[in-house]
Amino acid sequence: MTVSTEPQTDPFALAKALSGQHLIDGQFVAAASGRAFDVVNPATGAVIGQAADGDAADVDRAVAAAARAQAEWKKMPARQRGKLVAQCGARLAEHVDELGKLIALETGKALRTESRVEASVLADMFVFFGGLGSELKGETVPFNPNMMTVTAREPVGVVGAIIPWNVPLLLMAMKIAPALVAGNTVVVKSAEEAPLTVLRVMQIMNEILPPGCANILSGFGPECGGPLVAHPKIAKVSFTGSVETGRIVARAAADRLIPATLELGGKSPMIIMGDADLDRAVEGAITGMRFTRQGQSCTASSRIYVHESVHDAFVEKVRARVDAMKMGDPLDEATDIGTIISPQQLEKVQGFVEAGKKAGATCITCSKMPEDAALSKGLFLQPVIFTDVSPDAAPAKEEVFGPVVCIFKFSDYEDVLAKANDSEYGLAATIWTSDLKTALDATHRLEAGFVQVNQNLVVQPNLSYGGVKSSGLGKEASLESMLEHFTHKKTIIFNMG
Predict the structure, then answer these.
(1) Active site residue 118
(2) For residue range 276-286, what is the model confidence (pLDDT) as tens digits?
């Protein structure tokens, strides 16, 4: 199979050209079983291509290729590995528009507001980690003056990476870029809903990297992901997905006594004090709730606590902003909001909306459904703002992973901190205030791994990212993640007496 690695302008043609393939040992190959499954455009319901249906036999081939490649890759000087990874980033930067269109096609995320941005950050993540090769250094230990004691950072081996569908490009880069620079090789299992763009990324990278360093499989969790985690030559697992699946991955890794990084769910609180810059907080809520991504984000600020003095004004401003957003064809530059990823996810989110209504919450529906007949089968859903909602109602407690936000009124600072922390999740949190003392106090007391004041930035290179409690284990996107999660430390003692 030959697919040009020059930037492509037609995402439909590219999706067909990439269909039915894994990428193993630098080559496109069909699934060992010969099976494939459909990839569907969620904006129209049309089949845009197929993905290879991987199983244990494909995992064996990919892991074997990665193990062969790692034997030589780890011998390469770390800065040289970093240069190659940075070259991958530079090459991917040339494909930003192409990758943005393809990811919009298969996930339904709007091109202008979401997909093109993700493709840009993907490239930046590889460039960032590529520059960290020289940081793979050890220490001199003052153990005994008659001995020389040092430590060294060494790669763990073959890394298995399992990625989700909501931001597959960014989350794949956060896993494989540090793993490769550290001297590991990788086998990625893509999400069954979004397998094509990440496959294209791997094809482009394999023009630069030695064969077998970066491999990717498509398939379903039990048949493909399970065998990957359980494979005896996988030395490390990095997983992003649901809490339920994360527990399965953690148990499998524990059975083999291998390390696992887990980035799981979230129910992120946003606290708006009475002295906050209200317009700034409104923009933070729009960004934080990821409305342009239909709320399909584990860091979505889906619990917003607003001081009673500004609550009503805040709700009205958020409603007006979301109402003005255009929902439509993800590939249209005028579109602000795209689709939900799948019929199953749409049904799940709709269930949360109905649960909120039954619990007596006030339901404010925003934006307008697309009028284009070509989108009549698309998985579009109007964003929902719940007010007067019980904190025990399902949409207030559980991760919806959809465009549903619960806005609560509060009067007491201590009480709102307790409510913000009353969750099994601890991924992200924000506090909005003009008072420095309040901001400092809240950042120390909010139970989350990623806390911000007066802003709601998405994940960026060089910002350590990861949660506490049921939101996961380990950090990503930083030097720390490369050193702590993709190397092990060896102690070496010289005694020449």
Answers:
(1) no
(2) 999 999 999 99
